[in-house]
Amino acid sequence: MKPIRPKFPPLIYKLYRGLRAESQNAFEDYCKGQGGNVACKPGCVECCHALFGLFPLEALIVHEAFRSLRGAIRKEVKERACQGLSRIRYLGRLDKRFDRSISKELERLKIRCPFLSDSGLCVIYGQRPITCVVYGMPTLINGKRQQCPRAVTNPDNGGPIFDLDSLYRRLYSLSLRLVQSLGLSDPKKASLLISMPMVVLDPGAPLSSEEGEDMG
Fold first, then answer.
1. Are the C-beta atoms of residues 206 and 198 closer than 8 Å to each other?
2. For the chain, does the N or the C end have fewer beta carbons within 10 angstroms?
3. In a domain, 45, yes or no
4. Which of the four pLDDT bands, split at 50, 70 and 90, describes residue 212?
5. What is the mean pLDDT of residues 25-45?
6. Is residue 37 part of a domain?
7. What is the pLDDT of residue 52?
8. CA distance 167 to 24
């Protein structure tokens, strides 16, 4: 799949592509340093059921990847997105009714990514989010080292750590430039995290909403 070029300032898109290439290179270098120790391969879908959101810039780019899909594949992705969004909103309603102990349990529940096909493959693999690109190598999140336990056969084999905190700051910075270029008055829109189901269905909705919609 060729890189998608959404209709917003070329410089912002160019900077995003550079950030994505940098992340891809970091993962490939990690794999080379680990030899055959990295277990990530097609069909392993552990990371495809995590509930996470994208900053507005990347959400719009991934949405264009969805729009490039055709026929039954596009229809199936949209159906899974509708199902996923319904579940997210249901969990959100439960979260408001119960205490924080229940909320923490809800956070551990998994929701299938709309782009994950029934055959266990990503239908936009070449345009998947950067978080997906680096998943499998050790990452730094909120100052703590994390790694998928299934990603390597020898987790104590060392190797570089990818700084996700830094990545998120850079994605936010690019999203802020996008929000400003679109003439939106509220800079807080750049910090919104848009869930994968909403990325498929309408990533612009949280940006146009007066109050915004985080993860919805």
1. yes
2. N
3. yes
4. very low
5. 85
6. yes
7. 87
8. 12
Query: What range does the domain containing 159 cover?
Result: 10-202
pLDDT tens per residue across span 162-186: 999 999 999 999 999 999 988 887 8
User: Is residue 125, in this structure, part of any structural domain at all?
Assistant: yes
136 pLDDT tier (thresholds 50, 70, 90): confident
Q: Where does residue 91 rank: exposed (0-12), middle (13-18), buried (19+ CB within 10 A)?
A: middle
Domain count, the chain: 1
**pLDDT at position 36, please?**
73
Cα–Cα distance between 53 and 196 in angstroms, integer? 6
Can you tell me the distance from the alpha carbon of 111 to that of 84, in angstroms, rounded to the nearest whole number?
A: 6
Give which of 171, 207, 206, 4 is closest to 85, Cα–Cα: 206
Extract the tokens encoding 123.
């239908």
Q: Kindly state whether residue 216 falls inside one of the protein's structural domains.
A: no
Q: Report the chain's mean pLDDT, rounded to a whole number.
A: 84
